[in-house]
Amino acid sequence: MRLALALDLGTTSLGAVAIDRSGALRAHVQRPNRAHLEGLPTGRAEQNPARLYDDALEALRALAQGLDGEPAALGLTGQMHGVVLAGPANEPLTPLISWQDRRAGVAGLEAFLARCAASDLERAGCRPALGYGGVTLHALATAGAAPQGDWLAATIADWVGAKLAGAPPRMDPSQAASLGLFDVAANDWNPHLLSAAGVCRENLPAIAPSGAVLGGLCDEAARETGLPTGLPVIAYIGDNKAAVLGSLPAGEEAYQINIGTGGQVNWPVEAFRRVEAMDTRPLPVGRLMLTGAGVSGGDAYAWVERTLASWLGAFGASRSPEAIYARLAELASALPADNDGLVARPVFRGSRRRPSERGSFQGVTFDNFTPGHVARAVLEGIAAGLYEFVESAGNAAPRAQRIIATGNALRRNPLLVAALERRFGLPVWTPDHREEAAYGAALLAGVSAGMWTSLAEAGAVMRLRPAAADAPERERG
Q: Which of 93, 140, 327, 368 reaches 20 to 30 Å from 160, CA-CA?
């Protein structure tokens, strides 16, 4: 039995999966991301790439120990937008500067955008924001903080993939677009945007087609993981696109919504088009999708838990996060649908379009600012923020019959599922499998290895069910 493997290098955790030709999840490993650097100046978010690579090897080693078939290929996915600068031997010259990094500041972002022609930003498929690799590279160049000599700016999984394969980093179009320096329509780096960021084409990896083989697993990585030497290592795709591949059957008109640390609403489109406030992103293989990337997601609801914990601590009391979340669910579920008038806009760290914006509550009375009301307002606010993208899309929105939802924040919170159903007026379904991004990367790897003839055939093996816990399981008809 052949198995498609994938490694997901996420912001908070690392996951690895193995699936067979029927789509069954044969093995699954998850580990915390322990590479985050502490004690950084305000606004900086960095990770240690060497530590992340060691943790990736450990996750693959644990996966290999539980395999009951022959590995066919290894796919890669994970966090987007961030960059690590590497030298000629792929040695890291900087930490991973992640998508959460804000070192450029609003002034730096505006200075970068002022150097970009509107037509170039249009063809980039996005409006770069704080945390995008292009904005970060501009900030490094402006501060004179870029390394001397030869270097490449790679995403973390491109760098990890290169080390696994013992080959130079190469970048898939779906990931290249996440830096904000790519011409999505031409499928190549945009020289004008590179110039605006203060970098040369030689500072960016060559573009590899989606599903391309970077090389075979090198001897050293094979020894460290227990996987076979020469196992095809497939070019990395961003977790946003991988989650779409791993949950939305090809050809179906539906909203794909992922809510993890942040939140996104996605749907495929037939041709390149732009919608205000949304990104047009490459979707493997040779397709495109529209993405509304809201900053508010599970991190907004985690803020509610942290705030309550800090208030309890101020009075000498304490409760575990699990206990606080459980009690919030009880309190919020007992409230009326209108939440007694309390409304939240939970953009606590700003939005990509308006980074200086901050969260707010409206309709506060003497009686409706209880923990349950605040929790429900934040959940409804997350759903409302995603629906704003659908409203702005107009006729570019699909004739969706359902939402296909992914992400741990959704799986753990039925109230968030209910908020989406109310706001969108559609039922929410979820895949049977978890780790949707890793699953999608495994499907792409399996297609590259010949386990399936196409992503359409691969996607047909997915099983979906209504999100309500007590709903009967149904296969997609």
A: 140
From the list 164, 182, 165, 186, the residue with the least C-alpha distance to 174 is 182
**C-alpha to C-alpha distances, 36 to 153, 163, 319, 366, 417, nearest whole angstrom:** 19, 20, 26, 41, 30
Of 260, 270, 311, 235, the residue nearest 398 (C-alpha):
270
pLDDT at position 369 is 97
For residue 420, the number of C-alpha atoms closer than 13 Å in the C-beta half-sphere is: 30
More confident residue, 127 or 472: 127
Query: What's the pLDDT score for residue 475?
Result: 37
- Say if domain 2-240 classifies as CATH 3.40.190.10: no
> In terms of Cα–Cα distance, which of 311, 295, 308, 394 is closest to 351?
295
* 177-231 confidence digits (pLDDT tens): 999 999 998 999 999 999 999 999 999 999 999 899 999 999 999 999 999 999 9
